[in-house]
Amino acid sequence: MALPTTVLTPWRGSKTYINVARQTAFGTPAAATAAAYIKLEVIDITIDGEQGQVADPSLNSTGRTPRSILPVGRIYRGKFRTRANYSGHGTLFKAFYGNASWVTAAGPPVTATFVESPNGSDPYTIEVFGGIAGSSTVGIMLSDVTITGVTIRCEAGTSASAALTYEWTFIATTLTTSRTMTSASGVPTVEPVLFHHVTTTQDAGFGDGANISGWRSLEINYNFPFDESRYFFGYAQPFQPYQNGLGTCSWKLGVEVGSQAAYTAFAAAATTNAPVIRFGRTASGTVPGVGPSATTPTTGAANNYIQFSSSYTLMTKVSTPVTNYGLVTGQIEYTCGYSSTDSAAMKTVIASGDTETAAA
Fold first, then answer.
1. Per-10-residue mean pLDDT for the chain, 360 residues long?
2. Closest to 277 in 3D by CA, of 345, 190, 217
């Protein structure tokens, strides 16, 4: 069999990135202006279009299957992962939390504290360029996007997990193809957040106080459920989704075991355990353990940090299996509730030299 003279040009994942902007209203994508968007690199991205269908109930079919399949409601959902940076992610955290209170220092860095908004979030527009788009200038646009969850992961060691990552889940009501990508401002620099950048951990339940020893891995899951069924006559897409249940937040810590403190705290069933982790730089602008960093931002470098904390938690699992002659490791899990002190189940604070954080 002869080779074909023409073949399909495959899509590739190289150079994939996204542009993200807040919309002023549902149904109106963000304006295609550079100032409106922040550009972010992605590790991977999935977009699933889901088309509702109804089998024609008419009995007048010449076969034994429906005479027609009727398209009804339609929605898009997916997820994407981003490498955590010391700047550039304020827009996504605001899209998730729905609100942010800004505390500005005397010049950079700008400190943004993200808390839960009872009124939810404005819709967002996300432009996607790369493997699923195919063209050098044309991408896919998702509009009326709702960020429904974030998973935060990091693990001490030499694997790819040694870099802090965020995995964002979303739903969107509209997808547009052949979108000319906006020339977004704030092109990301490489400012990775690595496991050895941790300057503070605290876990009263584990009994390590403010020591950073003992923690080996971190996974935080924070999600809100949304009603996706707000369909109205005349529209194939649902109207803006609204939260229809209480959110969930949990921590999973991988630890090296050195005492019985975790079991003591577990037996007490207290809700005063308060896990905290902070990634940042020292006062001199260096990162712990590696000396001056080639990726240190030029603005506000000495004070840049990212911190996650939960003040109202219940320890729900302690596991410290002894399986061999070596070190004993284990896992501690917390379920978090809303804290009036933090105004969230988990408060996120980002101190960044990036003005995008303040302007989002």
1. 72 83 91 84 93 89 86 93 88 85 58 83 89 68 95 94 96 90 71 84 54 77 93 88 92 85 79 84 48 38 80 89 86 92 91 58
2. 217
The pTM is what? Answer: 0.88
What is the rounded distance in angstroms from the CA atom of residue 214 to the CA atom of residue 210?
A: 11
φ, ψ (nearest 5 deg) of residue 195:
-60, -35
The three state secondary structure string of 162-198 is: HECEEEEEEEEEEEEEEEECCCCECCCCCCECEHHHE
Tell me whether residue 190 is exposed, middle or buried, using C-beta atoms within 10 angstroms of its C-beta: 0 to 12, 13 to 18, 19 or more: exposed
In the three-class reduction of DSSP (H, G, I as helix; E, B as strand; rest coil), residue 72 is classed as strand
Q: Hey, what long-range contacts does 319-322 have (CB within 8 A, 24 or more apart)?
A: 320/257, 320/262, 320/263
Distance CA 164, CA 152 (A): 7
Please, what is the average pLDDT of the chain?
A: 81
Sorted by sequence, the CB contacts under 8 Å of residue 115 that are 6+ apart come out as 97, 99, 100, 101, 342, 343, 344, 347
DSSP 85: B
Q: Which amino acid is at 321?
A: P
Cα 259 to Cα 218, 253, 328, 330, distances in angstroms: 20, 16, 10, 11
Domain range annotation of the chain: 17-51+69-359
d(CA 38, CA 89) in angstroms, rounded, equals 9
- The span from the CA of 194 to the CA of 69, in Å, is 51
Q: Whose structure tokens read 């409601």?
A: 73
